[in-house]
TrEMBL record:
Alphabetically ordered keywords of this record: Signal
Residue positions binding substrate: 432
Signal peptide start-end: 1-20
Superkingdom of this protein's organism: Bacteria
Protein name: Acetylxylan esterase
Length: 646
């Protein structure tokens, strides 16, 4: 009966007529009559699926009352819930749902708060006031709103940051010093912060708890009461069938100091005719540390941004499509998540003149010492043939003794029947992280060469998820993920990169003792952290004959501190000892041709300025490709590619 009533209500609402109750709410709070559904979503899936229902763009009428129903079902099947209702804190229904970074935000009192819940300890009843903390940015515990009774932990009185994307969707009963409910860390999927009532521990508003993992199901309903309520079908722009394209008025690497750079940004709806207005929101940053921003309504004419830079360096333009409430138009990612439809690109002034932090005076002596440490450990190894082998290629799990904390581990493929000294070798190095999906053995391999794929850590192969989780904890340092601890990095022989570099050198020593190697061709390759390792390989072993990699990590680590160059969030804090591992200092020691397959002009995990310094320091034949509009993990369907060679 209830299901039928909801289906009928949805059908009527779609043609713009009448009111209907929300049966899921009435089942728990029978007196909560007259509420209309505004939106419904699973907070554990919000990052990947967004809303199950979102009618906020099509609702009209006088907004009288706002409510949130939160239902959480734990792993044992127990369901807890809370319903909070209040006078609206905004006249715009579209601002009652989950915000995006930089869109609408509210840290305000609300009148006539009502609370009903089955959670022990939650104060039920009617209260003169409450407060909400709703924003898409990150935040801290400082009581910026002077909410009575709030402290410096994350509770019912916090402070929103100007940037970041952690997110807060919280209703509080500050009179009772209580969080009613909280949904934070919007993009974390099942690891979001989620809870009813005060959280145990340091932060009562559930911040940093990752508590979404406690639940097998969760749903949040946004509801409202209206006079003269109507809802019409509202056609939103589908970000999966749209594009935001950016271009420069000339090749982006050819500007002179002070010359005007003209960027044009054009929204392409690809035939869609959405309701409502959309806007291009943009922000300019650069290696001059100057910023500018703006927003302009989408039209048939491109948005034009003019800027300049008075010295060698890069300018970045980041832009998104947003609706009238400032919420981003989203699209699916290849991994199944969601992200804003964006343009992230840039241009440069005299990139050929960029230089980096000088190398340590004892750079070569340091690496001579590390090679001596490695030489003290014989090249002993285990090769275990795997069932992934086939008639053409043998597949092996390998473990190679190494100096430092871990052995070298990975997968080797060798064509069946290969004669001695007959085959080239390619060694592949892995990007950042560790997980069982990445660590699967290959099914077969190339038939024209030997291939070795090693992980960066030397962990046990083919472990279960619990093993990798435990391993990840063992390589953290002072509460930071591996390689990110400035205290550990202050000693170059204790830095996490030290063991990683030793394993890189040992991997090359191993493949060179294989009898099938032709003693002529030894190629190294990788991307991001894998590119960093490939650079170490080519710079430390003169037998490497070619290096191919994209968007190499950690180039010009001192660039932000020493030259005030811009970088992104995924940046290791610079300390002087890291100069021993910076690719820019290996460049002049590389003796083989180098192919840099991709540098994103919007990639600020591996900023284009740093990769350019690396390129400038190379003394060998090199090709580098800059992709306009490309970030670390995204490449446009039809990118503009700009090639430099030497």
């Amino acid at each position: 009966m209830k299901l039928f009533r909801w289906m009928a209500a949805a059908t009527v609402a779609s043609v713009g007529v009448a009111q209907a109750e929300v049966p899921e709410l009435l089942e728990l709070v029978p007196e909560a009559q007259g509420y209309e559904l505004i939106a419904k979503f699973n907070p554990r899936e919000y990052n990947s699926k967004g809303y199950q229902i979102n009618r906020s763009g099509g609702i009209s009428g006088k907004f009288k009352r706002l409510g949130y129903l939160v239902k959480l079902t734990d792993r044992a099947g127990k369901m807890t819930w809370i319903f909070t209702a209040m006078d609206p804190f905004t006249a715009n229904v579209g601002e009652t749902v989950v915000p995006d970074p930089g869109s609408f935000s509210f840290q305000t009192y609300v009148d006539n708060l009502e609370v009903a819940s089955n959670v022990e300890g939650v104060k039920n009843g009617k209260f003169e006031k409450g407060n909400v903390e709703i924003w898409g940015n990150s935040y801290g515990g400082f009581n910026a709103g002077n909410i009575p009774g709030a402290g410096n932990a994350c509770d019912f009185g916090d402070s929103m940051s100007r940037d970041g994307s952690y997110g807060s969707f919280q209703v509080h009963n500050y009179l009772e010093k209580q969080t009613c409910f909280a949904f934070n860390k919007f993009n974390a999927g099942g690891s979001c912060d989620l809870g009813i009532g005060n959280a145990p521990g340091q932060h009562p508003d559930w911040t940093f708890t990752g508590s979404g993992n406690q639940y097998k199901d969760a749903v949040i309903y946004v509801v409202g009461k209206f006079d003269d309520f109507q809802v019409r079908g509202f056609v939103e722009l589908d970000g999966n069938r749209a594009a935001l394209v950016g271009r420069t008025d000339k090749p982006p690497l050819t500007y002179a100091p002070g010359e005007t750079m003209t960027f044009t940004l054009q929204a392409d709806y690809q035939g869609q005719k959405p309701d409502g207005e959309y806007f291009i929101r943009w922000r300019r940053t650069g290696d001059d540390r100057q910023t500018a921003s703006g927003q302009e309504k989408v039209s048939d004419q491109p948005l034009v941004i003019r800027t300049s830079l008075d010295k060698p360096g890069f300018v970045r333009i980041y832009a998104t499509l947003v609706d009238k409430f400032g919420k981003s138009v989203n699209r699916r990612t290849p991994a199944g998540g969601r992200e804003a439809l964006f343009f992230d690109g840039g241009a440069a002034v005299q990139p050929e003149k960029l230089t980096g932090t000088p190398e340590p005076a004892d750079f070569d002596a340091f690496w001579t010492k590390q090679k001596a440490r490695l030489a003290a450990v014989p090249v002993k190894y285990e090769m275990r043939k795997l069932p992934q082998s086939n008639a053409k290629v043998d597949v092996y799990a390998v473990k190679i003794d190494c100096a430092g904390p871990q052995s070298v581990t990975g997968y080797l493929t060798v064509p069946v029947g290969a004669k001695d000294k007959s085959l080239p070798i390619t060694v592949h190095y892995a990007g950042y992280g560790y997980n069982p999906q990445r660590d699967k053995a290959p099914n077969g391999g190339p038939v024209d060469r030997i291939s070795l794929c090693i992980n960066a850590h030397g962990y046990k192969l083919n472990g279960d998820r619990a093993y990798y989780q435990k391993f990840g904890e063992t390589i953290r340092s002072n509460g930071k993920d591996y390689a990110f601890d400035p205290i550990q990095n202050s000693d170059p022989e204790k830095a996490y990169f030290n063991g990683m570099a030793l394993r890189v050198m040992r991997s090359l020593e191993f493949v060179k003792v294989l009898p099938q190697w032709n003693n002529k061709e030894l190629v190294v390759q990788g991307g991001s952290q894998g590119g960093l390792q490939a650079i170490w390989a080519a710079g430390l072993d003169p037998d490497v004959t070619a290096a191919r990699f994209g968007f190499p990590w950690c180039c010009d680590l001192g660039g932000e501190k020493n030259f005030r160059r811009i970088s992104g969030n995924w940046r290791i804090e610079y300390v002087k000892a890291l100069d021993y591992y910076d690719p820019i200092n290996f460049a002049k020691r590389i003796k083989c041709p180098v192919d840099i397959t991709r540098v994103g002009l919007g990639d600020y995990v591996c900023p284009p300025s740093g990769v350019t310094v690396f390129y400038n320091n190379l003394k060998v034949p090199t090709t580098i490709r800059y992709y306009q509009g490309s970030t670390h993990g995204y490449v446009p369907d039809t990118p503009e590619i700009f090639v430099r060679q030497k």
